[in-house]
Write a structure and sequence with these properties.
D-Maltodextrin-Binding Protein, domain 2, six-stranded mixed sheet, 14 helices, alpha/beta, 2 domains, 11 strands, 18% strand
Length: 332
C-alpha cells in the first residue's frame, strides 16, 4: 500500500471516528477486530475495556470496532503503526509480511497438541521475543487469543489427504500457507475472510480451512457440509498495540494496558472453549458432518516443508527451535 493511500485511509478513519479532542477530554483508545460481537475475541476486548475504564476511566475512553468496521487486518495494521488505531486482534498469518519471524505459526503441525500451543503463545518470554523488533515494526504484541486448530471444511468430504488433490481452498494471506497447500496437492487461494462466503457460494473455491466458528459465525456451514479434523495449523490472534501509543504512556499507564491485555487473554480463552462446543452442535443442526481423519497422514505430507521454510526464512529459526523444544518438553 502506498504512503499516499495509507494517509488517505488514516484521514478517512480520523474523520469517521472524530479525532477532535480538548486538553480536558478523555483519550480515546480504539480497538479493531474482524469478528462479530458474540465472538470470543470481542468478549476478550470487552474485558479489556472494562479493566481499563474501571481503573482509569477518567483518562481513557475505550472503543471497540468489531466486524472489520475499520477495514481488513492488513490495512488496520498500517493504522496501528501510525497510532490512528491503538489495538488490534490480528492473526500471525497477517503479520508475517511485516516481520518474517511471525511466519513460524504458519508452519504446519508445529505443535502436537492444542494445550502445548496455548501454553506457548501466552508465555511472556515468547511475547517479548516476538516484540523485540517493535520499534521497527511499529506494533508490539501484548497478549494472545487462541484461535483453536485450523482444519479443512468443504463441499465434498475430506476423508484422506488425497481428497485434497486438485481442490481450491481459501487460505490466509502469506507464502507459507500457499506452500502448505501445494504440499497437500491442492491449490491455495488467498483472500480476505469477509470474501469467503460468496466465493464458496459461487464456486470460486471448493472449501476453506479454519476453526468451527467459521461454520456458524460466518455461516460457511450453509455451503460446506463437511469438516475434517486434521489440525494442520494453530495460529494465534495476537493483541498488538501501537508502539507509538505505548511509547507515550507513563510507566503506570503502560502497565495498565499490559494488564488489560492479560485480562482480555483470560476472558477470550474461557469464552473460546465454551463457544467451540456450542458451535459444533449448532453446525450439526446446519447439516455439517464432522470427520476424524488420520492426522499423521496429513502431517507426513508437509513435514519435509519445515526445513524448506527454515531455509527460505531464517528469521523464524530461533522461534521455531523454541516452539519445537517447548512442544517436545511438554509431551514428556
Amino acid at each position: 500500500m502506498s504512503i499516499k493511500k495509507i494517509l488517505g485511509t488514516a484521514l478517512a478513519v480520523a474523520s469517521i471516528l472524530g479525532f477532535a479532542a480538548s486538553a480536558e477530554a478523555k483519550t480515546t483508545v480504539r480497538i479493531s477486530h474482524t469478528q462479530i460481537e458474540t465472538h470470543p475475541d470481542h468478549i476478550g476486548f470487552v474485558a479489556f475495556k472494562n479493566f481499563v475504564e474501571s481503573k482509569a476511566g477518567d483518562k481513557y475512553d475505550v472503543r471497540i470496532f468489531p466486524n472489520s468496521s475499520l477495514g481488513a487486518n492488513e490495512k488496520v495494521l498500517e493504522l496501528v503503526k501510525m497510532n490512528s488505531v491503538q489495538f488490534l486482534s490480528v492473526s500471525t498469518a497477517n503479520i508475517e509480511s511485516f516481520n518474517k519471524k511471525y511466519a513460524v505459526f504458519s508452519v504446519p503441525f508445529l505443535f502436537t497438541s492444542e494445550s502445548n500451543f496455548e501454553k506457548f503463545i501466552t508465555d511472556p518470554e515468547v511475547l517479548a521475543e516476538l516484540g523485540s523488533d517493535a520499534q521497527k515494526d511499529g506494533f508490539r504484541p501484548l497478549g494472545a487469543f487462541t484461535a483453536g486448530t485450523r482444519n479443512f471444511y468443504s463441499k465434498t468430504p475430506i476423508n484422506t489427504v488425497d481428497d485434497l488433490k486438485g481442490k481450491k481452498f481459501r487460505v490466509q494471506a502469506g507464502p507459507t500457507n500457499v506452500k502448505m497447500m501445494e504440499a497437500f496437492g491442492a491449490a491455495a487461494t488467498p483472500m480476505s475472510f469477509g470474501e469467503v462466503y460468496s466465493a464458496l457460494q459461487q464456486g470460486v473455491i471448493d472449501g476453506a480451512e479454519n476453526n468451527e466458528l467459521a461454520l456458524t459465525d460466518q455461516k460457511h456451514g450453509e455451503v460446506c457440509k463437511y469438516f475434517s479434523y486434521d489440525g494442520h495449523q494453530m495460529c494465534p490472534d495476537l493483541i498488538v498495540a501501537s508502539e507509538k501509543f505505548l511509547s507515550k504512556l507513563s510507566d503506570e499507564d503502560r502497565k495498565l494496558f499490559e494488564d488489560a491485555a492479560k485480562e482480555a487473554q483470560k476472558a477470550e480463552f474461557e469464552a473460546w472453549h465454551k463457544r467451540i462446543a456450542e458451535a459444533k452442535e449448532q453446525a450439526k443442526k446446519m447439516g455439517v458432518t464432522f470427520i476424524d481423519v488420520d492426522a499423521n497422514a496429513f502431517r507426513e505430507k508437509v513435514l519435509p516443508l519445515h526445513q524448506q521454510l527454515l531455509n527460505e526464512n531464517p528469521a523464524m529459526k530461533a522461534m521455531y527451535d523454541k516452539a519445537s523444544a517447548f512442544d517436545a518438553s511438554n509431551n514428556k
